[in-house]
Specification:
This protein is an alpha/beta fold and 373 residues long. Helices cover 52% and strands 13% of the residues. It has 15 helices and seven strands. It has a seven-stranded mixed β-sheet. Helix 11 packs antiparallel against helix 15. The N and C termini lie far apart (63 Å). The N terminus is likely disordered.
Length: 373
């Protein structure tokens, strides 16, 4: 494990090197740095040449690293009609995701002070509870004012947020979570029973073709489910349809930047394709495009939007670190090693995409217009 961690750290350093290599330096400093670099390289090569074993190990490491990157750069879980349910069934069954992420399959929230103090000092699971609290505030959802509300959680995972809302809004509330994954419904129901929460239930249902009547819910909540929807317009239309007049809608979803003014270049398209196809996403759209879809329903009042990239971006790398600090969640599951490596690699690719502005964290809140408005 130490060897693996060291190799991973070395790989990170190598990946980071190109950015510093292009940093502008005074001409004399560049010459000095170049001379020093050449001298060090000559010494290293000379040492390796004198030691055939070292040369073999070094060569094998280089080839192995290149081969691993070649494999990891080829996405392995492209979207199809059944892929979302299949992948979430597998993630739920192997237990690794629940071990590290707890009951909440969404990013966490880190305020400015926590980021300043170092995101790794914050409890990883607590960050997810903080996210729910912040999302409630963003959507104007209040534990007292919305006590007893009828809530729909669209794309509920194994129900962490559904149970949290059911507890927050009191025993008179009624919370329904829907997902495509039968394993998530089973696990969500088990956890609700363990906590004695009789006011929440889970169902296997397609969010694009919901069975609920029009105007059924006081609150429609959707957290990181839009990414997997093959028809974003139908996704929005269905949520607006089942929301009661005067009801509250709040959504969080990963978005790609709006490319209408500055089109995506080849690297952007290549990176997006990887993010689509590694975690079974059909495609992403922009914050602006989602707002346009909500406005087009002509059912909603003004739509509040925001990009929460800054308070959530730490989640990507924090997810990797918790697995390094505590390997018990995956170390006894050798058949899952490659999958874990792939997921860690994708987490890093996500971090970089958000950091450079290719991806944005879209937040949306609106109230459905009343009949006489």
């Amino acid at each position: 494990m130490r060897t693996f961690a060291s190799a991973a750290a070395a790989g990170s350093i190598l990946l980071a090197a190109p950015s510093s290599a292009f940093t502008t330096q005074p001409r004399q400093q560049q010459k000095s740095s170049t001379a020093l670099s050449m001298g060090l390289k000559t010494q290293v090569v000379s040492k390796i040449a004198q030691n055939p074993v070292a040369a073999t190990v070094a060569g094998t490491a280089v080839v192995g690293t290149a081969a691993l990157k070649f494999v990891l750069d080829r996405p392995s879980r492209a979207y199809n009609e059944n892929s979302v349910a299949k992948e979430y069934d597998a993630w739920t069954q192997d237990g690794i995701l629940e071990y590290y992420w707890g009951e909440h399959i969404h990013l966490g929230y880190y305020n400015e002070e926590e980021m300043k103090n170092g995101y790794k000092n914050k409890d990883f699971i607590q960050a997810k509870y903080d996210f729910i609290d912040e999302m409630m505030k963003f959507g104007g959802i209040d534990a007292e004012a919305d006590k007893g509300a009828k809530v729909l959680d669209v794309g509920c995972g194994f129900g962490g947020t559904s149970r949290y809302l059911a507890d927050k809004l009191g025993p008179q509330a009624d919370v329904t979570g829907i997902t495509l994954s039968p394993n998530q419904v089973k696990r969500g129901t088990e956890l609700a029973e363990e906590r004695g929460l009789s006011n929440t239930k889970f169902m296997v249902m397609n969010a694009l073709e919901m069975d609920f009547p029009d105007n059924s819910f006081d609150i429609v909540w959707a957290c990181e489910s839009g990414e997997h929807m093959p028809d974003k317009e139908a996704y929005i239309n269905e949520m607006m349809r089942v929301l009661k007049p005067g009801g509250k809608f709040v959504m969080a979803t990963w978005c790609q930047r709006d490319d209408r003014e500055v089109p995506f270049d080849k690297k952007d398209k290549r990176d997006l394709r990887f993010l689509y196809e590694e975690w079974t996403h059909p495609y992403f759209i922009s914050i602006e495009a989602y707002q346009e879809l909500i406005d087009a329903t002509k059912m909603m009042g003004p739509v509040k939007t925001a990009d929460w990239c800054e308070p959530t971006i730490a989640s990507w790398r924090h997810s990797v670190w918790v697995g390094i600090y505590d390997p018990r969640g995956w170390i006894t599951k050798p058949t899952k090693y490659l999958k874990c490596v792939r997921d860690a690699y994708c987490l890093e690719r996500m971090h970089r995409a958000f950091k450079r502005g290719l991806m944005e964290y879209g937040m949306f809140a609106a109230t459905k217009a009343k009949m006489d408005e």
